[in-house]
Amino acid sequence: MCGINGFVSQSPLETKTINGIMETMNNEIIHRGPDQDGFFTENNQKFSIGMAMRRLSIIDLTTGKQPIFSSDNQKIIVFNGEIYNYKKLKQEHLVGYNFKTNSDTEVIIALYEKYGVDSFSLLDGMFAFSIYDKTLNKVFIARDFFGEKPLFYCSNLDGFYWCSELKSILKIFPTKPKISKQGINLYFQLHYIPAPFTIYDSIFKLEANHYLELDCVSSNYEIKEIKENSISNYSHINKEEAVKKNRELVYKSVESRSVSDVPIGTFLSGGVDSSIVSLCLAHQTDKKIETFSVGFDKKSFDETDKSRTVAKIINSNHHEFILSENDLAESIDAILLNFDEPFADSSALPTYLVANQTKQFVTVALTGDGGDEVYGGYNKYYMGRMNRNYTKYVPQAFHVFSEHILNTLWHSKEDQRGLLFKAKRFMKAVNYEGDFYFDIVSLAFLESERKEIFNSNTYLEDPLSYFKKIIGANNKSLTDFRNIDRLLSLEGDLLVKVDRAAMLASLECRAPFLNRDLWEFTSSLPESYLINNWDKKHMLKESFKQYFPKDFLNKSKKGFGAPVGDWMRGVLKLELLFYTEKSFIEEQNIFNYEVISKLVNNHVEGKIDNTIRVFTYFCFQKWYKNNF
């Protein structure tokens, strides 16, 4: 696990200058790789190039230092991530290759030397890497299938830059780029910004499962999808066979993601996904495994009893951390500002705190991330079926009237996400035009609400149009919904949260459910295997129910959130009110003061709970104040 940086300039630069740029960029991401750094520079009459990395040593601790060269010394790689099938790839494709290290990084460059860009589809792992090919005068920058590892890039008059975190590019720019209209509208609709967009006009994210081909001489570049060579189809498999095959694939994935030359453990929340990952890891070793969970001193958010139950079942060395407002107050600036752009997933806060504690015991932690997307585990997948039935039988005019009545008569004063909360959210997201699921994933402000909070200079109609063109309209099936989540919320929210929060603590997190074989397997099954009537993640639970007490895997779980609604009435209140002062908002020239003031004051005064929207606003303002 590492962080990478690089740039290409058409101007001939001295080696000292190139090194200075690389060191400046690299110093911004020491937390991603505190163990080592590495540099490559080259200048000629046509262009100058620099590549650098920071390393967190996980595999091949002694000889895995980067950059790594190909056997002909004409291709150079810097790499962030882990390739889980690298040993298998060596045996099947690279017999006779003269390896100088035991690292997965050298396998990538050896495969590229043999197959070129076609080799990228062979990789099972989480990765972002750049390869400089001297024979072609080109750089190839690639990102993994799910987008577990980040990659930012920027092309301007000074050259072409890429990096693992925005802070590296921002550090070398003399002035901050302008705020992106697309980026800010996406953020206030989703509470995060998915690839290819960022909060800045001129900086982009490389989309998951794509590579960028840069011509170093002309500085022109193309972005292309990484094509899979062949995809298995399981559409005709019966349910009993599917359960058996799924169990086999999950065990295999956990095994591949537990290869490490440093201590390893698991995040154990007590939910279905983390419980099964922890169970599989425990079954694969004779030693007690290390498990870690986090709870809150607010009991309605605390579910540590579930993780204790699983820890007893698998006989792990269980570590439990209980968080309070004081823990948050000490870390919130470091956590939120580390994202480098506005990001309002409240679970980032406990994710960092548990990662920071976990790092005291292990260097790698397996997580249950991706289980909901792979197996159909979200309540919102029910809502897809409900929306189809609702809009079929309920006239649109009656729906509008009913929604108005519900909004008028029912206001929650606390962050209680029970039945009424879900009913209100469903009513708000009901859509008669076919964009229903895009409204469901818009957790912050819907279209009409963004139009109210922004001034006319900021508001952009339908910022999700880019993704609707890619995914298509009238998404109706569970597979459609899961693909939207993979491209939007998984890449833009969940994986960003885990990567930045864990790497801030210099902890590597691996997600066994984020395995392309598992994704292709579940995507080719009948949808009833994933959601059986109202039983979510049916296939996963059926595969492992024999190892847990009866109905344990069917127990409801709140999710890995944090009581930020309370915190914004308490420890964060003064800061929130400062961001809502009329002079501050008018100077920004972004928001409608009257609307924002009412939204915030209703929440702070306990009249109406606006937790998600107010926290989205709070995180933006904290980012804005720090940067502008």
Q: Terminal Cα separation, in Å? A: 32 Å
CATH topology of the domain at 2-225: Glutamine Phosphoribosylpyrophosphate, subunit 1, domain 1
Mean pLDDT: 89
Q: Which word captures the global form?
A: globular
Strands, total number: 17
> Strand sequence of the main sheet, in spatial order?
2-3-1-9-8-10
CATH architecture of the domain at 2-225: 4-Layer Sandwich
Oligomer: single chain
Low-confidence stretches: none
Would you identify the CATH H-level superfamily of the domain at 2-225?
Aminohydrolase, N-terminal nucleophile (Ntn) domain
User: What fraction of residues sit in β-strands?
Assistant: 15-25%
Radius of gyration: 24 Å
The profile of the biggest β sheet is: 6 strands, antiparallel
Q: Count the helices. How many? A: 26
Structural class: alpha+beta
- Helical percentage: 40-55%
Descriptive overview:
The protein has 628 residues and is of the alpha+beta class. Among the domains are: 224 residues, Glutamine Phosphoribosylpyrophosphate, subunit 1, domain 1; 198 residues, HUPs (Rossmann fold), CATH 3.40.50.620. It has 26 helices and 17 strands. The chain has a 6-stranded antiparallel sheet, covered by helices on one side. The protein has a 6-stranded antiparallel sheet with strand order 4-5-6-7-11-12, with helices on one face. A 5-stranded parallel sheet has the order 15-14-13-16-17, with helices on both faces. Helix 9 packs across helix 10 and helix 10 crosses helix 18. The protein starts with a strand and ends with a helix. Pathway: Amino-acid biosynthesis; L-asparagine biosynthesis; L-asparagine from L-aspartate (L-Gln route): step 1/1. It catalyses: L-aspartate + L-glutamine + ATP + H2O = L-asparagine + L-glutamate + AMP + diphosphate + H(+). One of its GO terms (cellular component) is cytosol.
